[in-house]
Each structure stands twice: as C-alpha cells, then as structure tokens.
Amino acid sequence: MLNELDVNPQDFESDAADHCYLDDLSQVDETDAEQFLNVGVDTGADGRGGTFIQKDRSVVHCKSCQDGIEMMSISQAAETHGWLGEYLWKNVSPDTDKFTSRAREKPHEGYFIRALPGAKCEHPLQSCLYISKDHFSQHVHNLVIAEEGSELHIITGCATSPHLVSGLHVGVSEFYIKKGARLTFTMIHDWGEKVFVRPRTVTRVEEGGVIVSNYISLKPVGSLQMFPTTHLMGKDAVARFNSVLVASEGSHLDVGSRVILNAPGARAEIISRGITLGGTIIARGNLIGKVAGVKAHLECKGLILNDGLMQAIPELSGHVPGVEMSHEAAVGKIDQREIEYLMARGLDEDEAVSTIVRGFLNVDIEGLPANLQKRLDKAVSETQKDMM
Amino acid sequence: MLQIEELRVEVGGKEILKNVNMEVPEGETHILFGPNGSGKTTLMMTIMGFSGYEVTHGKITFKGEDITHQPIHERARLGIGVSFQRPPTINGLKTRNIVEICAMDQPVDVETLADQLDFSEFLDRDVNHNFSGGEIKRSELLQLMAQRPDLTLLDEPESGVDLESILLVGDTINSLLNKGTKYFPRGRTHKTDRVKSALVITHTGHILDYITADKGQVLYDGVLCCSRNAREILKWIREYGYEECIRCSTN
C-alpha cells in the first residue's frame, strides 16, 4: 500500500512501450486530445506558436512555428547544442532528493524551449506531458532558456489517460531568464486520484528579467509536492507566482514557491488561493531578501468548504537592513456577510457562494488565450458543483 | 408598501427593537432619525432579513406579503433594495459584475449608469476593495440604480461623502425614487414611472437638503418616539439635541 506522502520511484515501472511520432496534430487520438484540452493544450493548435507532446516516455510531437523560437526534445537539444551541458543540472542538483536522482538515472526525455536573443513569442507555446501507461513513473527533464531581451510564453499541461489508476510524475525543470528577458509560464494539472506528482523546478533570472508563473490544479490528485525556487540574480529582476489549488477528498497538495532576492531592485510576489473540499492543502511561501533595496510580498488565502486541512505557511527571511517584505495569510470559511450582501442583490444562497468562490479563485492570470480562460472558468464552475 | 407591526428584535440575545410600528406607504420617503445605538441600522437589517437579527415578536409586511421570515434574496426579488454603510469587500468579483447581478436579468447598460455616477473607472475593480467612504456610496447607489427597487433602504447616505459629491448622491437618490430627471438612467427600460418608496436613516440630517421627505420619525432606545414633518424634527434636534426630542415625546 502506497503512503500518499512517502512515494518511492522504485515502486513504479520506469519502462513503457514506444508511441509513434505524429507529424500532424490532427492525428492525435480523440480521447487524448480531449484530455489535452482540459489542461490547455489545443491539438487544433489554434493560436499556438508551437507544440511539444510527450506520452509516457515518447515524444509524439514537437514543432515550433515561430522564427527565433526553438522547441525540441531534450535529447535532440543535447545533440544539436554542444553547450547544453552548461545548463543541464546546473540549477537543480541530481542529489536534491530521490526524485531528482531517479530522473538522472532513468531519464525519459522532456522539452527544450529557447527564445533566441530578442525573439518574441507571438502566440503561446504549448507542451503536454501525458501518462497513459498504468503504474508508470515518468521522469522528464525540461530546459527553458529565454535569451537576452526575448519573450517566451509557455502553457504546459499535465494529464493522464482517463482509465489510468496510478502513476508517478517527476519533472525536473530548469529555467534560465537572461538580461531583460521575460517568461510567462502557465502550468495546468489534471492528474488522477492515485497519481503522485513531484515537480522540481529552479529558475535563475538575470538583470531586468521577469518570470510570471501560474499554477492551476483543480482536479483530484493523489499527492503533489513542489516548492519551485527562483533566484533573482540581477538588478531589477522580477518574479511573480500565482497558484490556484482545489483539493478534493483524498488529494494532498503541498505547494509553495520560494524566491531568493539577490540583487537590488529585485521584486517578488507570491499569491496563492486554495480551497479544500475534504483534502489537504499546505500552501507555502518563502521569500528571502539577501540585499538591501528589494521588495516582496506573499499572500496565502485558503477556504475550507468541507472538512479537510488548509495550512498556510508563509516565511520571510531578511538578511540585511533595507529589505521590504510582507505577508498576508488567511484561512477560514466564506464570510457570511459576503453571502448576505450578494443575497440582498437578489442571488440565492447557492448562487452567492458560487459567485464568491469564483471570485476567490479569480487570480488575474496574464495572457491566457480566451478559449483557455473559458475552459478554466468552466472547470471552476464544475468544481463549485462538487462543493454544493 | 411596507408595514411593520409590534416588531421586537434581538441581537446577540439583547433586545434592540422593543416595539416598533411603522408604515411607509407607496411613493413616500420617510426619514428615520436617532442617536447612535438607537436601533436604526438594526431596523434596516431586520427589514432586509439579515442573520443575527432575530425577530422575537411582530410582523413585517411588504406589498401585502408577510416577509418576516423570508430569506434575504426573496425580499430583494420582491423589490426591496438596500444601501449599506460598510459593505464587505468581495475579492475577485468586479464591480461591473455585481451591477449586472443587481439587474436580476433585466437589461442594464452598466457603462451609462456608471457614467452618471462618475464611477466608470471603478467598474473593473473588485467590489468595495479599498474604496473610500464616498466611493462606497457611489458603488452602492450604482447597484441600486441597476436593481430599481420599489422600496429603497438607505443607511446614512451622506456619511463620508464630501460636499461636492453629496449633490450627486442626492440627485441619484431622487432619480432612484423617480423624483428627479437629471440622473435618470437612460440605460434602463422602465415599466412604470410610479414614484417609489424609501426609508432613509440619517444621524445628521444633511441629506434633507437634497431630497424631499414626506415624513420623519425618531427612533430612540428601540422605540419610535416621534412622527412628524422631517424638517421640523431636524430643526428640533439641531437646536435642542436628541435629549429634548426624547423628553418632548415622552411627555
């Protein structure tokens, strides 16, 4: 019996059959395509600048449609760019934990995305990491490089096939944001009830660079544990992390972000919204100010709609005078005054609660394509139905 | 329109309204005076049906229907609208969306209404988030303009409003009550031009310079103790204070 918190990669199978490469996205299996759409990956490829799809350990599609934007599998990138070793395993050490070492031992591809200097992504790139084999342990290694003055916008969706019972996903991601570059990274998860997820992400941001990271997990998951770390290395570098989490019964989400502000003028903001419907959410946030003249804010808000545990753990560490850091954490139920205020405007109690929950989860997420925003709104409404 | 009979209300186990009888007929605007803590807001919250205001005796009738124990939203749908003094912030809900909610499926031109209240720039802000006193007033009135209630309950509409805006607030209230035309909401189709009813709570009485009242009443210690011309009451209160007003009425 697997303990939801103590997962061992060795307990899963690390081999899977190959899936054949698809030249054209229209060849994607219909059931798979539907699952992809739920996590924002559109095989109609409307308004997407490039697509990477990995099923189990096979890259089944990979193509960039924009000049100046490279998109390939990590193994192909290693062949193409002799210098890749200067980046791989430099942000994340393989010795970090048993998951990173497993990813080093038994690598299963992953994506490489790079914007050449000054290149600007017109349409978001999409990547999908998909598990279809039951009891498979998928270990991907992703590398994103935004060269000087470039702009990247990536939507990455992770999902499993509908029949899948259990599985493990380990994702090592290393992001490099060079001087004046910008990365908007939106990750949407829709795993299964007995899928265990261990992303390991570290980002380095140079002078004037910006990372905006959005994480959305509304569907059941066995357990998810991640604590991505961002190093703001250059002057005026910026990090913004938003997460929207819903934990249904049996789901265990331990999700946080850490930002280390190492240069003057660096700014960081971490915003987390969690709703538990009987599951557990541990929302962490950690801001570390190493030099004077940095500014950072952390906001953790949680609602408990059924039973369950909602734990907010905000941490601030200032190492010198002249850092400006603050946090705001609140855990509770919906304020009756808000419900009654909306009822006085004509909504019945259920409608009022839905409206408040929708607002609560409505973290302003930059640059989402309209159809994806619509799908997310729909997913939030469905979540509400489960609550009622 | 609104009838209140022998109303007794407890808040947190303490009796606040002790025996209130009141009638607001169709088309009339009544002013409710009273010192702080006299029960004015309790009366309004009870009419709207908020939790924590327990009716232990008596009856509230609206448009002939006993609403004493009806849920809040049914009262709103029947045509009672309220402007709050300190409404809660609703994170993530835009002011534009709450105005649409207030219209209750009736067509509403939010932009035009907001323009009239000089509130357009707030439409995409979260409801009441960091609003100043005056901004809250305008937000509340904007919502009521979309709702067009037959009975409007206003809790201290002039408090926290600067002199410049009080004229706008007054005009909007008149328009809500179909008594003025300056800020008549073009964005909304009207079924009727009937004059609406209102119950206005005021502590200072300043709002009387901007709206026409049909009647004034004084609530003191949970009991209505005076009922006459609103301006006369205000004159007495201003000249002699509430103490005199109470002394006169108890004699």
Describe the structure.
The complex is a heterodimer of chains A (388) and B (251). With 388 residues, chain A is of the alpha/beta class. Chain A has two domains: 10-333; 334-388, no CATH class. Chain A has six helices and 20 strands. Chain A has helices spanning 30-38, 74-80, 98-105, 336-343, 349-361, 370-387, and strands spanning 50-55, 58-64, 69-73, 111-115, 125-131, 136-146, 151-160, 166-177, 182-190, 194-205, 210-217, 223-226, 229-232, 238-248, 252-261, 267-277, 280-289, 294-304, 309-318, 323-332. Chain A has a ten-stranded mixed β-sheet, with helices on one face. In chain A, strands 3, 4, 6, 8, 10, 12, 13, 15, 17 and 19 form a ten-stranded mixed β-sheet that branches. In chain A, strand 1 (50-55) and strand 2 (58-64) form a beta hairpin. In chain A, helix 4 (336-343) packs across helix 5 and helix 5 (349-361) packs across helix 6 (370-387). Chain B is globular, with a radius of gyration of 18 Å. Chain B is of the alpha/beta class and 251 residues long. In chain B, the strands form three sheets. A six-stranded mixed β-sheet of chain B has the order 6-9-10-3-11-12, sandwiched between helices. Classes of the chains: A alpha/beta (388), B alpha/beta (251). At the A-B interface, helix 4 and helix 5 of A face helix 2, strand 7 and helix 3 of B.
Largest sheet of chain A: 10 strands, mixed
Low-pLDDT residue intervals, each spanning 5 or more residues of chain B: 180-192
Structural class of chain A: alpha/beta
**Would you tell me the structural class of the helices and strands of chain B?**
alpha/beta
CATH fold description of chain B: Rossmann fold
**CATH homolog superfamily of chain B:** P-loop containing nucleotide triphosphate hydrolases
If you average the pLDDT of chain A, what whole number results?
A: 91
Largest interface (CB within 8 Å) is between: A-B, 24 and 26 residues
| Tally of strands of chain B | 12
Distance between the termini of chain B: 31 Å
